[in-house]
């Protein structure tokens, strides 16, 4: 993956993201990663609320996350998104959370599937992404 296909989103650690010691609570890294993927899609012109009108969405199927160093209250961070594999009904990403010096604090591999959300009481099922979405994602990866 070339550096030009790496998306980066800046965030700041808020008090609500931390434990009593001022260290980011591990589960909140997942929120940081999710927000960066959402902003990446938005930067490509893909708004998730448009998908929801079509009863389509992305659901995370698999997460592998490694916490390497702690992030702390009020710290400025960058969260990256890189597409590693694009399939008809899923996307695999690598993501990192870095401090301002470029030190990797957290790294993760995420697999997200495109699903049809169905009506209330019906099963969610994996479906192929719309062709126009696949084309946008191919150009970005």
From TrEMBL:
Report if keyword Nucleotide-binding is assigned: no
**What GO molecular function terms would the record report?**
fatty acyl-CoA hydrolase activity
Which keywords accompany this UniProt record? Hydrolase
Question: A Pfam family for this UniProt protein?
Answer: 4HBT_2
Note whether Hydrolase occurs among the keywords.
yes
Where does the source fall among the domains of life? Bacteria
Q: Which InterPro entries match?
A: 4-hydroxybenzoyl-CoA_TE, HotDog_dom_sf, Tol-Pal_acyl-CoA_thioesterase, YbgC/YbaW
Give the matching CDD domains. 4HBT (cd00586)
Write down the NCBIfam families for this protein, in alphabetical order.
Answer: thio_ybgC, YbgC/FadM family acyl-CoA thioesterase
**Into which family does the record put it?**
Belongs to the 4-hydroxybenzoyl-CoA thioesterase family.
Name-wise, this protein is Tol-pal system-associated acyl-CoA thioesterase
The organism is Pseudidiomarina terrestris
* Organism lineage string: Bacteria, Pseudomonadati, Pseudomonadota, Gammaproteobacteria, Alteromonadales
């Amino acid at each position: 993956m070339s550096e030009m296909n790496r998306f980066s989103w800046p965030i700041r650690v808020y008090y609500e993201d931390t434990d009593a010691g001022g260290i980011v609570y591990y589960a909140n890294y997942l929120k940081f990663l999710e927000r960066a993927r959402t902003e990446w899609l938005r930067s490509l012109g893909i708004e998730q609320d448009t998908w929801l009108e079509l009863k389509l969405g992305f659901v995370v199927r698999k997460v592998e996350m490694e916490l390497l160093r702690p992030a702390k209250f009020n710290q400025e961070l960058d969260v990256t998104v890189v597409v590693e594999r694009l399939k008809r009904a899923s996307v695999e990403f690598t993501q990192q959370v870095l401090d301002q010096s470029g030190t990797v604090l957290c790294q993760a591999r995420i697999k997200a599937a495109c699903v049809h959300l169905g009506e209330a009481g019906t099963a969610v099922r994996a479906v192929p992404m719309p062709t126009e979405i696949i084309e946008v994602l191919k150009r970005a990866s």
